[in-house]
Design brief:
Blueprint (H helix, E strand, L loop, with lengths): L39 E3 L3 E2 L13 E3 L3 E9 L4 E8 L4 H12 L6 E2 L2 E3 L6 E4 L12 E2 L14 E4 L11 E4 L11 E7 L1 H9 L7 E2 L6 E7 L1
């Protein structure tokens, strides 16, 4: 979906040392693996280049039950809040990252840099503070997809630059779209989709895939 971020590498968890006089050595000590309590999962948020806007990585432990509610305030050709149910059960690490970035103010005052209106793809893409489509939060994490994922109108999903390169960029589907199941779906719009369709109705600056004719800005994102 146009997001260009680095390739995800797994964090290592092993340390060793050797010291002391000849014929002796200190024991090799392996770091204990991180374990999650019931109702939670361990997420690998891996360092990945320079952040487009300063922010820390999220907690490695995220809940994998229940839902949360996000409200994205958009300003553009149409303005208003877009309310979304976030599903922690299907995408706990994605929801955890999104909530962390929202609570950190990472998305506040950032542009939605891409609008598509092709025959099969109808999305508004946001989440890159640089507005170039190449920016991210300085970390990446794995996909939470399954072969049956689809992208009907109202879907909230992650943009990526290839397998396991999720960062901060996401897209809102404003009309049923056809995509391979390679983009993590983590929420559903429950109110305000008309704001996105109103933005889309004004078109792009270049054919059916480009910047919105009128700049679109995220004023704020809250998660509760």
């Amino acid at each position: 979906m146009g997001a260009t971020v680095g390739v995800l590498g797994l964090l290592g968890a092993c340390a060793s040392s050797t010291s002391g006089s000849a014929g002796s050595s200190s024991p090799v000590t392996a770091a204990l693996p991180v374990t999650a309590p019931a109702g939670n999962v361990v997420c690998d948020y891996v360092p990945d280049g320079q952040a487009a806007k300063a922010v820390d990585a999220p907690s490695a432990i995220e809940p994998n039950t229940g839902t949360a509610t996000a409200k994205i305030e958009l300003t553009g050709a149409a303005s208003g809040p877009v309310t979304i149910d976030l599903d922690r059960a299907i995408a706990p690490c994605t929801v955890g990252s999104f909530a962390h970035l929202a609570q950190s103010g990472y998305y506040d005052g950032t542009p939605c840099h891409r609008l598509t209106a092709s025959t099969t793809l109808h999305v508004l893409q946001c989440g890159d503070p640089s507005g170039t489509g190449r920016g991210g939060p300085g970390y990446a994490f794995a996909d939470e997809t399954d072969p049956g994922m689809t992208y009907p109108a109202g879907t909230l999903a992650m943009a990526n630059g290839g397998p396991d390169t999720n960062g901060s960029q996401f897209f809102l589907v404003y009309q049923d779209s056809v995509l391979p199941p390679d983009y993590t779906v983590f929420g559903t719009v429950t109110d305000g989709l008309d704001v996105v369709t109103g933005i889309a109705a004004q078109g792009t600056t270049s054919g059916n895939d480009g910047a919105p004719v009128r700049p679109v800005t995220i004023s704020s994102v809250t998660v509760s």
